[in-house]
Design goal:
3 strands; PX Domain; elongated; 3-stranded antiparallel sheet; alpha+beta
Length: 162
């Protein structure tokens, strides 16, 4: 009976140059949620967040973009993806109903610590969603990330690779 011997030879690889080692990765999608700004007064007061995208993925029309979004825009994106795609959409950070009650000793949903926690939660959410290959082909995600104004009366469709 023949004895099998494991092949332990190393794979032959080409030498790595500086461009390979320190150049941009072959495919990347970086999304930062930052710079929260609270605007308005009274019941019309809300916080917006800057969404900054850098990518070299061919499915995105812009390689760099910056837009401002509020929490309700994230809710819109989540409901669109749940309705139109086959993606399991992660939850958003909580709505914080108790923080909206009057006569609290703090600023409620406009408290700096709460805004920072929500910002981090929104960044985790959008990075999970946008990192999913099926979600990347949804028009609503592209509008959310790269269009200055979200057209909420859009026709849901898939984005084709460029």
């Amino acid at each position: 009976m023949a004895e099998t011997v494991a092949d332990t030879r190393r794979l032959i690889t080409k030498p790595q140059n500086l461009n390979d080692a320190y150049g941009p990765p072959s495919n990347f999608l970086e999304i930062d949620v930052s710079n929260p700004q609270t605007v308005g007064v009274g019941r019309g007061r809300f916080t917006t967040y800057e969404i900054r995208v850098k990518t070299n993925l061919p499915i995105f029309k812009l390689k760099e973009s910056t837009v401002r979004r509020r929490y309700s825009d994230f809710e819109w994106l989540r409901s669109e993806l749940e309705r139109e795609s086959k993606v399991v959409v992660p939850p958003l950070p909580g709505k914080a109903f108790l923080r909206q009650l009057p006569f609290r000793g703090d600023d409620g949903i406009f408290d700096d610590n709460f805004i920072e926690e929500r910002k981090q939660g929104l960044e985790q959410f959008i990075n999970k969603v946008a990192g999913h290959p099926l979600a990347q082909s949804e028009r609503c995600l592209h509008m959310f990330l790269q269009d200055e104004i979200i057209d909420k009366s859009y026709t849901p469709s898939k984005i084709r690779h460029a």
